[in-house]
From TrEMBL:
It comes from Streptomyces purpureus. Residues 275-532 form the CoA carboxyltransferase C-terminal domain. Residues 22-273 form the CoA carboxyltransferase N-terminal domain. This is Acetyl-CoA carboxylase carboxyltransferase subunit. One of its GO terms (molecular function) is ligase activity. Pfam families: Carboxyl_trans (PF01039). Transmembrane segments: none annotated. Gene3D superfamilies: 2-enoyl-CoA Hydratase, Chain A, domain 1.
């Protein structure tokens, strides 16, 4: 039998404590998500509504097929920065006329929808996802262009936004812009470079320079409508392909455009799948609050894969890394999950072989992180941990099948790389609120700095200040702890979102469906030199 048996004691004290700790973290996460949902706050939301306009997420809801999910991406972008949480734009994947699309929507309640540095990073990440998965892009535009005080951080890299639109179009990936208000300066190029553009009567304003700028630059007197209104662009300039009478009509027309795209998935949907044998609610009590305490990742796997059915690969070899085959919402996946945290030589070699097998079979890979990194020490160095770790990283870096990563617990050091961290281009990467990621654990990092400082003082023949050392260690530990938390990392777009563990199966299912819009093909050779 390959159906996983669960040993989770849901009535035990450990489970209860783990669950309580994670629920506390989810409460804090909800509070931060609420900031993104609030946009510019009550004052600017009320002003926007008084103009008879819909909010960004309301526009998305009307665009999507009824009763279909929307997978919002990077909702905590800009968290911990000087800019509002959410970065004044909503991005995500949803279904329009049966077609999975990448949707972006400016939030005009936040500084008129102006783009700040985190807006740019968030949109560029959305474009990456659209390109890799061949998802049509629908831009719901209402933006005054760059947030001018931050122009030095936007202007040069901002050109990549327009480059992406043209490259998507060149790759045969449709791009659609629906303009709800101002789309000025650089923002004018979004409708200008999209395949299809919808504008709204007396609402859409698209121009490179508004009347004040035109007056300053040329001395010409003009008004919004003659300079860049929807009627002018529909009848005179030809920039508007479709002319709508209001927002609802514009969204209806956008849906009709998608319906006529003839855009098809490379792989058909697999149909209904058997749910796991165990309750997703139980995922809350698996990961310990103290990540130094190991847990069995099979308990997680049993609650996210179809029928809790998992064929383990090399179960007795390299036991601190669990590898095996399963299906998730009907899609085949190969899973790599850290068991005891540390990666040894055997685990590294096992991972490299497993990744090659997945590429031979065109099967996407799912990485479930809980690792402190590769093992250190004289015995392990002499045993070849560097070359074996490099073998695993080589395999991950050159694998061509789509990768999905979920940070469950720790994800430290080169172990983060070997398990397909952000730098290794997973198609999607999410984190649980229990996760932490950094170059190493706070205590270890502070301890290394202390040892180095102590050795330096000794080499110079100077006395060592123990009191200052204790203060330094405490300060460094606090800094690294705060910088390794999921909200901090998500704010910098090092993941695509921090998710409720109970939603893991649904989120991964939506991602796998999006992934299969594009061809899924593994590497046939093409790996670097494996050091044996």
């Amino acid at each position: 039998m390959t159906v996983l048996a669960s040993a989770l004691d849901t009535g035990g004290a450990d489970y209860t404590a783990h669950r309580a700790a994670l629920l506390d973290k989810l409460t804090a996460l909800d509070a931060e998500h609420a900031k993104a949902l609030a946009g510019g706050g009550e004052k600017y939301t009320a002003r926007h509504r008084a103009r008879g306009k819909l909010l960004a997420r309301e526009r998305i809801e009307l665009l999507l097929d009824p009763d279909t999910p929307f997978l919002e991406l990077s909702p905590l972008a800009a968290w911990g920065s000087d800019y509002p949480v959410g970065a004044s734009i909503v991005t995500g994947i949803g279904v329009v006329e049966g077609v999975e699309c990448l949707i972006t929507a400016n939030d005009p309640t936040v500084r008129g929808g102006a783009s700040n540095p985190w807006t740019l990073k968030k949109v560029l990440r959305a474009n990456e996802i659209a390109c890799a998965n061949r998802l049509p892009v629908i831009s719901l535009v209402e933006s005054g262009g760059a947030d001018l005080p931050s122009q030095k951080e936007i202007f040069i890299p901002g050109g990549a936004l327009f480059r992406d639109l043209t490259r998507l179009s060149a790759a045969g990936i449709p791009t659609i812009a629906v303009v709800f208000g101002n789309s000025t300066a650089g923002g004018a190029y979004v409708p200008g470079m999209s395949d299809h553009t919808v504008m709204i009567e007396e609402r859409s304003k698209v121009f490179l320079g508004g009347p004040p700028l035109v007056k300053m630059a040329t001395g010409e007197e003009s008004d919004d409508e003659s300079l860049g209104g929807a009627r002018m662009h529909a009848r005179v300039s030809g920039l508007a392909d479709h002319y709508a009478v209001d927002e609802a009509d514009a969204l209806r027309q956008a849906r009709r455009i998608v319906a006529r795209l003839n855009h098809r998935k490379a792989h058909p949907d697999p149909g209904p799948a058997q749910p796991p044998k165990y309750d997703a609610e139980e995922l809350l009590g698996i990961v310990p609050g103290d990540l130094r305490t190991p847990f069995d990742p099979r308990e997680v796997i049993a609650r996210i894969v179809d029928g809790s059915d998992f064929d383990e690969f090399k179960a007795a070899y390299g036991p601190s890394l669990v590898t095996g085959w399963a299906s998730l919402h009907g899609y085949p996946v190969g899973i790599l999950a850290n068991a005891q945290g540390v990666l040894f030589s055997a685990e590294s070699q096992k991972a490299a072989q497993f990744i090659q097998l997945a590429n031979q079979r065109d099967i996407p890979l799912l990485f479930l992180h809980n690792t402190t990194g590769y093992m250190v020490g004289k015995e392990y160095e002499q045993g070849g941990i560097i070359k074996h770790g490099a073998m695993m990283i080589n395999a991950v870096a050159n694998s061509k099948v789509p990768h999905l990563s979920v940070l469950l617990g720790a994800s430290y050091g080169a172990g983060h790389y070997g398990m397909c961290g952000r730098a290794y281009d997973p198609r999607f990467l999410f984190a649980w609120p229990s996760a932490k990621s950094a170059v190493m654990g706070p205590q270890q990092l502070a301890g290394v700095l202390s040892i180095v400082a102590r050795a330096s003082a000794q080499a110079k023949g100077q006395p060592y200040d123990e009191e200052a050392d204790a203060g330094l260690r405490a300060m460094v530990e606090q800094q690294i702890e705060s910088e390794s938390l999921p909200m901090f990392l998500s704010g910098r777009l090092y993941d695509d979102g921090v998710i409720d563990p109970r939603d893991t199966r649904t989120v991964l299912g939506l991602c796998l469906s999006a992934i299969h819009t594009a061809p899924v093909e593994g590497a046939r050779g093409g790996f670097g030199v494996f050091r044996m």
